[in-house]
């Protein structure tokens, strides 16, 4: 996909959704960090269900640390891997208090040093909480990037590198949210809504059909 088509691709996404944002509910960088930690292999809906109640009683590192794993568990036990995530939350809160004055760090290195935080989570925090032009490649963004020809790659690291090079600078800040929402609701894994897709004329996915069915999956 050449530069002109890439620019048109994002102009269409922007026109459809001028101010995209995460579907995770949060009111501070710390709340976002906890929500993203919980969202691994879980839906935003399930995370929001737990954090709505949890954050009302504990939404700071010290408050969550005081609550402890047992105290946090009732709010997150419906979320996959809740035991591991509960442990990571406690360890993360301790590190934030001991090393960062209770604040969420603003560097990739410091973020990735937190338990349960990998490159994808760090990118989400940097982009959504701190306005950095990063792209966190999840399964949705990986699929959209490969299907459309926007930024093909064999793994998430390659796709991220391609996106950082190929997304026009004026769209880089919001590209993460446009792509994830497009993959979540339109360019779905097995039954993409090709007939309703606003970027379909620019898409190079050869397996799409008139009914929006696909032969195979990415």
TrEMBL record:
Cofactor: how bound: Binds 1 [4Fe-4S] cluster.
Binding site for [4Fe-4S] cluster: 187, 194, 197, 203
UniProt xrefs under SUPFAM superfamilies: DNA-glycosylase
Protein origin, superkingdom: Bacteria
Residues covered by the HhH-GPD domain: 38-185
Membrane-crossing residue ranges in chain numbering: none
Catalytic activity, reaction form: 2'-deoxyribonucleotide-(2'-deoxyribose 5'-phosphate)-2'-deoxyribonucleotide-DNA = a 3'-end 2'-deoxyribonucleotide-(2,3-dehydro-2,3-deoxyribose 5'-phosphate)-DNA + a 5'-end 5'-phospho-2'-deoxyribonucleoside-DNA + H(+)
Entry keywords, A to Z: 4Fe-4S, DNA damage, DNA repair, DNA-binding, Endonuclease, Glycosidase, Hydrolase, Iron, Iron-sulfur, Lyase, Metal-binding, Nuclease
Pfam families on file: EndIII_4Fe-2S, HHH, HhH-GPD
EC number, UniProt record: 4.2.99.18
MF annotations from Gene Ontology: 4 iron, 4 sulfur cluster binding; class I DNA-(apurinic or apyrimidinic site) endonuclease activity; DNA binding; DNA N-glycosylase activity; metal ion binding
GO biological process, one term: base-excision repair, AP site formation
Cofactor: [4Fe-4S] cluster
Known function: DNA repair enzyme that has both DNA N-glycosylase activity and AP-lyase activity. The DNA N-glycosylase activity releases various damaged pyrimidines from DNA by cleaving the N-glycosidic bond, leaving an AP (apurinic/apyrimidinic) site. The AP-lyase activity cleaves the phosphodiester bond 3' to the AP site by a beta-elimination, leaving a 3'-terminal unsaturated sugar and a product with a terminal 5'-phosphate.
UniProt family annotation: Belongs to the Nth/MutY family.
Protein name: Endonuclease III
Native species: Polynucleobacter paneuropaeus
């Amino acid at each position: 996909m050449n530069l002109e088509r890439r620019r048109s691709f994002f102009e269409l996404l922007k026109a459809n959704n001028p101010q995209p944002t995460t579907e995770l509910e949060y009111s501070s960088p710390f709340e976002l960090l906890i929500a993203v930690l919980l969202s691994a292999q879980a839906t935003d809906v399930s995370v929001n269900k737990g954090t709505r109640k949890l954050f009302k009683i504990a939404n700071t590192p010290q408050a969550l640390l005081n609550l402890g794993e047992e105290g946090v568990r009732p709010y997150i036990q419906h979320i996959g891997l809740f035991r591991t995530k509960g442990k990571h939350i406690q360890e993360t809160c301790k590190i934030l208090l001991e090393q960062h004055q209770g604040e969420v760090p603003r560097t990739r290195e410091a973020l990735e040093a937190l338990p349960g935080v990998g490159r994808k989570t760090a990118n989400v925090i940097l982009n959504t909480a701190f306005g950095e032009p990063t792209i966190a490649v999840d399964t949705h963004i990986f699929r959209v990037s490969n299907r459309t020809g926007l930024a093909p790659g064999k793994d998430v690291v390659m796709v991220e590198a391609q996106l950082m090079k190929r997304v026009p600078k004026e769209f880089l800040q919001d590209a993460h949210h446009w792509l994830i929402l497009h993959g979540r609701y339109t360019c779905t894994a097995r039954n993409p809504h090709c007939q309703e897709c606003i970027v379909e004329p620019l898409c190079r996915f050869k397996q799409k059909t008139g009914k929006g069915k696909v032969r195979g999956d990415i």
